[in-house]
Each structure stands twice: as C-alpha cells, then as structure tokens.
Design brief:
The protein has 578 residues and is an alpha+beta fold. The chain has 17 helices and 21 strands. The chain has helices at 4-8, 25-45, 59-65, 68-75, 104-113, 162-173, 190-194, 224-227, 284-292, 346-355, 358-362, 390-403, 425-435, 452-456, 476-479, 496-505, 510-526; strands at 84-89, 118-120, 127-129, 132-137, 143-148, 205-209, 212-216, 247-253, 256-261, 275-280, 298-299, 314-318, 321-327, 367-368, 412-419, 440-447, 463-469, 530-535, 537-542, 547-548, 564-565.
Length: 578
C-alpha cells in the first residue's frame, strides 16, 4: 500500500526537467490545485527533510495517491471510530501463547487478551488487583491466600475459579519452553515438578473453595504479587481461543490483528474501546502519513518524525531495562565440543573486558550502563565497567596463554551474533581494532530480531546480545537470568556463590536483601560474563491531546483497557488532522 508521502518523496535519477505531454494537462491542473491548497502543509511537513537535487514529483503517482485516503476509510468503515483504537506496530508474527513468549511486542498484545491475579498500576507500577480481589500474607510470609472475583469469567462465559488458577500454573510449569516458569520455583514443589523430579500433586497451590487459592512457598516471598503481574502468569482456559482479559482475538489477516471487547470480562463496563486493531508496518514514512490523517492513534514502531504534522507526538521514557552483551558457556552450544572453549576460562574473558571499547559502544546511547541491574532507590552502588585499559588487557592475555599452554601466535576466534542494527559500522570496527592486538579474530553476524532468541539457542557463537526489561521493580528481575536452575538462563552461567546469595536474600528484611543482591551482582560482574552497554528508552508516537488513559512509565506498560478518546473527530477525505 503506497502512501502519498512515500510517493511524493520518491527520488529518481532523472536529471532532465520534468516534461508533461499534452495528455497530462488535465492531471497537472488537478495537482496544481491540490498543491495550492496544501502548500502551507507541505512547507511544514518537509521543512526538515534533506532531499537531493534529483528530487522529482511524479504527477501520475501523485494523482493515484489521492485515492489512498479512501483505502484507510474503507478499512475502518465497519468500525465506530470513537470506540476503535488503531495501533501501528512493527511487522512480526505474534506468539499467542502467553506461557512461551519472551518478547515484549507479544506481551503487549497478550496483556489485552489475558489477565492474571494481579496487574501493574500504570502510574505507580505497584501490583493492583486484577482477577484477584483480596490477598493475605501469613505472619512468616511463606503462605498467601488469594480470593478471586466472583464475577470473573472467561470470554466464553465460564467462571474463572481457583481450579482455573491452579491448572494455569501447572500448565506453565509443565511447558518445557516456558521461559518464566522458574520464577514460580519459590512455591513448594514447583521446581521439582518443572524439572521432572516431582509430581503436580506436590506443587503447593491449593484450592480451598471455588474462589480461594492458597499458595505455600519455600521461603518468605512478599514480592510474589509483583511477579504474578507478568503476562506469563495470566490465567488461561483449557479451551483454545478463550480469553480471560478485556479483549478477544477476533481475526488475524495479513499484517493485522483484530481485537474486540470481551463482554464477559469482569470490568467490561470500564473498558472504553470496543475494537482494537494492531496494524503492522515497517515503513516509517507510511506510518507518519497514517498518523497525520488520523487513521492510526498510536505507533510503537518506526516513524519519520520529520513527516509528522504534529511534532510533539513522540513520548520518550527511560525503561527499567538493560541492553548487554554476554559470553555463553560452551555447554549451551548446539554442537557440543570435546574440550572447553578458551572463553569458558575467566582469565581470557577478563582480558577481553579490559580491552573492550566501552566508550565507543556507549556513545549516542540515551543512558550508558556500567552494571546489569537498573538503578533502584535503596539499591547499593555496584562498581561496573567504565574504561578501557589496553596494557592490562595485554598482560592478562599473556598470562592466560601461559597458564593454558596456548602459543602467542595462535589466533583465537571470537564469534559474535547480534540482532540487526545493534552495532554501527563504527562499533564493529572499534571492536576489531580493540581485540586484534590480543590475537583475537572477530566475526560479527547480524540476525533478524524477530527470530533472534530462537536462533541463539541453536547457535555456536560465543557472544550474544540481550535487551532485558525487568519484569517487576526489583533487582531479582535481572539477577534471576543467571541463577543456575532458572528457566531464563540461556547463558550457561553457573556459580554456587551467586546462587547461594540469591537464596539467602529471600530470608532477610528489605534493606538487607538489597545489600545481599548487590553482592550477588558483584559476583556475576567479577566472572566477566556480562558486558553492560546501555539502559534503553521506550519510544511511542501518540497524541495525548486526543487519547486519555496513557501514562509514561519505566516498564513501557500501557494497558489498553484504560485508553479512551477525548473527542470524536470525523475523518474526511483529503483533510489532514492537525
């Protein structure tokens, strides 16, 4: 689908003046009138656009593009625009099983279809009641009792009961590919069942009656409600295509996901939008056009801001997240090696860390990261990696080669695989120049982001990239990635001292707990597995003068059930909404 902006910004290699033959006079007259009416608009739209001297306006294409608006109008003709939300997002095939996805893009859609016992408050980011209406914690903080809403129903009208809760968690624990299942290891018998060493009957989740669930935990865990806010712990039905959240998935067509309000949802009366359309496009100019004409209300993907009429639409906010590189233990490689890789030895990794071009890789990042855990109020300062020391790197590499009998002239291959656009060409060159003096030969391969994690699990590379958004406002949201038995541990990292500190932290007061978790992070950083690069920012393009219920926050968490339109603006062909 071609938009007027994309066609009018078409660059050609023609250097001759545009010639209009006699058969195009009528078309030229129409376009001239069009440009006369909208010239102030184009002056504003293209004021920051840097075009070259070969720019030509193709009048035939421009005439055709006048009908583009009718396409969007026809697309939405069967919807009530005042009660329809159109969200532009990057092109991808969503994983619709909340138990097995690990992508925030999927969670965005799934959080509208499914709901858990608790959900985040989008303003405070603290747990709010969702399907639960009451929560009681025992004096020793090792048992909790959760009461469900009696009007909570699945989209097919079936009651959501305590059995629904238990069955959902058992199903999650029995799914081998469920990345977040180990967060339930705090429940008695959960880890044993998850790892095939116990039975479902021994998992400490009990149905006291139809609407009361009792959960028995191995250690004090007053943060359980925060964990259960995550999409993976939503309550699912045994029946496919049945949902527990505010919306139902009605249809999936090419680049579109259609959602409709779940009339059986317990809070349907306070869910304003009747229809939600996730419209997928990677064309930044087209996205700008769809926002300009009012077809789209919100964009989470790429937008050419130079082409947006309203230059105040972008919402940028620091995320509770860290982008980092990491060494992966050779035991995690798809093809097992007869002997260890040199990168399994701490001494070689240490040399790489000292030579690593930290400043170059962190330049132009919104927030540079020197540690893994995102800074939290009350969390002790942890010393991270701040600068490069070539001399120390050389000494460390020389010592490591001697210790493991690797000749100085032997080249050490280092394979790095990252999602596309992770590194600029300058970054790649800086990495190669920094590590070559150590006798390291780097190969950098870029992988499509939509299947990067799946690819990583079957790859033999040495270093990968992760951007991790904390699942709840706690250091454990990051440190759990590296616990030996964690289902999130894709790194092969294992350290008994690290595991012991995480376990110890569960038995102490909040402040002492933070201190112990900081010690655990120090152990991880001292093992030279994790290269902290930056704390990413979220980027949304949305008109908050027209939409309400949307709040910037560090989780980039924006429940659609709270979104409403402040005005009912009628869309008219060929008119652009300012």
């Amino acid at each position: 689908m071609n938009s007027i902006f994309r066609k009018m910004l078409k660059k050609t290699n023609k250097k001759d003046n545009l010639k209009v033959n006699q058969s195009k006079v009528f078309k030229l007259t129409l376009v001239s009138c069009f440009l006369l009416v909208f010239s102030p608009l184009f002056a504003q739209t293209f004021s920051d656009y840097d075009y070259d001297s070969n720019f030509n306006l193709d009048f035939d294409d421009s005439i055709e593009s006048l009908s583009d608006f009718s396409y969007y109008e026809d697309f939405l003709s069967s919807f009530n625009r005042a009660k329809t939300l159109v969200i532009l997002e990057p092109v991808r095939v969503h994983e619709m099983n909340p138990h097995i996805t690990q992508y925030s893009n999927d969670s965005f859609v799934l959080s509208s279809l499914y709901e858990g016992l608790f959900c985040y408050n989008p303003i405070t980011l603290q747990p709010d009641y969702a399907l639960a209406e009451n929560y009681k914690l025992s004096r020793d903080k090792k048992r909790c009792q959760i009461t469900l809403r009696k009007n909570a129903k699945f989209s097919n009208g079936e009651n959501i009961t305590s059995s629904s809760v238990r069955n959902s968690f058992i199903k999650l624990l029995s799914t081998p590919s469920a990345p977040y299942s180990s967060l339930l290891d705090i429940i008695e018998g959960a880890q044993e069942f998850r790892t095939g060493k116990g039975s479902a009957a021994d998992v400490g989740i009990y149905c006291l009656d139809d609407y009361t669930v009792s959960i028995h935990m191995k250690s004090p865990s007053n943060y359980l409600p925060s964990v259960l806010c995550h999409t993976s712990f939503c309550i699912v039905s045994e029946e496919e295509g049945v949902y527990s959240g505010p919306y139902e998935l009605i249809d999936v067509s090419e680049n579109c996901y259609f959602l409709k309000k779940n009339q059986n949802y317990w809070d349907a009366s306070n869910t304003v939008m009747d229809d939600v359309i996730f419209y997928q496009s990677d064309d930044s100019a087209e996205n700008a056009y769809m926002l300009n004409i009012g077809f789209a209300d919100w964009c989470t993907g790429d937008v050419d801001l130079n082409l947006t009429i309203n230059q105040t639409l972008s919402q940028v906010n620091a995320e509770f997240a860290t982008q980092f590189l990491f060494f992966r233990d050779s035991s995690k490689k798809a093809v097992k090696q007869k002997s260890k890789s040199v990168w399994d030895y701490k001494e070689f990794r240490n040399a790489v860390f000292e030579a690593f071009p930290w400043e170059t890789l962190r330049v132009n990042r919104y927030v540079a990261a020197q540690t893994l855990v995102y800074p939290l109020v009350g969390y002790p300062t942890v010393e991270g990696f701040s600068y490069t020391d070539e001399i120390e790197a050389s000494k460390l590499m020389e010592s490591a080669r001697k210790k493991y009998n690797i000749p100085k002239e032997q080249v050490l291959p280092l394979y790095i695989e990252v999602p596309k656009n992770t590194f600029s060409e300058e970054n790649k060159e800086a990495l190669k120049l920094a590590l070559e003096p150590l006798g390291i030969e780097i190969t950098i391969t870029e992988i499509n982001s939509y299947n990067y994690i799946a690819h990583m699990r079957s790859s033999n590379a040495d270093i990968f990239s992760y951007t991790w958004i904390g699942d709840f406002a706690d250091p454990l949201a990051f440190l759990e990635l590296f616990r030996s038995n964690s289902s999130l541990n894709d790194f092969g990292y294992s350290n008994e001292e690290f595991d012991s500190l995480l376990e110890k932290a569960a038995y102490v007061d909040s402040q002492t707990r933070y201190e112990i978790l900081a010690q655990a992070e120090n152990v991880l950083l001292d093992d030279y597995y994790v290269f902290p690069i930056s704390h990413p920012v979220s980027f949304n393009v949305i008109d908050l003068n027209s939409l309400g219920g949307w709040v910037n926050n560090a989780f980039d968490y924006h429940p659609i059930k709270y979104i409403f339109k402040k005005e009912n603006t009628e869309r008219k062909p060929n008119l652009v909404r300012f």
